[in-house]
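Hi C.,

You asked whether I'd gotten around to modeling the 257-residue construct. I have! Everything is below, sequence then structure, no commentary in between.
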Amino acid sequence: MAELVLSALDRGVLTLAFNRPDRLNAWTGDLGRRYFDLLEQAEKDPDVRAIVVTGAGRGFCSGADFQTLASIQTGSYDEEPDPRPVTFPTTVAKPVVAAVNGACAGLGMVHALVCDLVFTAEDAKWTTAFSRRGLIAEYGLSWVLPRVMGQQRAMDVLLSGRTFTGREAYELGLANRALPGGELLEHAQRYAADLAANVSPASMAVIKRQVWGDWTASLEEAARAAAREMAASFGRPDFAEGVASFLERRPPNFPPL
């Protein structure tokens, strides 16, 4: 059986590719477990400093596999669910960059948006799809979307379930960049390689925890927590190396996480 998720490491960047191209990388329990296992391994691997997630073939992830949905409908679905939530990538202490190369629908859209940054092909097809399948805003998307694109825009894409392009996804605030498809993966990997080479792993881990965690905090709570984190950062070797490399006008040599 082919690997459900392809994996390649280069210059500190681990590239993961969902690998069910004949089904536009439709999501299954086995694919999800393999993806999360690789994220867990990457977090522990000192050679990995940033992660890029994409899809093999023409799709990023077309949503839940219809065979899975059919078995749920008939009551025959009996797979043991993975205990790690869909939001698991937000808890990984290394930056995760989505490179949405094609179809990004339903659950696939959720998986793109729980990455830390999103780059998309201009002609990629995006859709929430839920309302057109008799479903609801799944896996916290009703929480994520209003925060990244505003309530009215979130209502539009959730209620209508309409399909829109990667270019519109960028204009709506769902992606950091919209690029020609042929340039997408290289751009995402180059961005991640810059993080891997020039940014403190400890700083990225703390910043990621702050950004995802502070959405439910007040300004005062976030400021108090940031003061504690800042005091801790002064004692890390990353701070000494960051200052020294700047003063000496050389590339930094930050320790692994």
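If it helps when you're writing up: The CA atoms of residues 8 and 15 lie 5 Å apart.

Thanks,
B.
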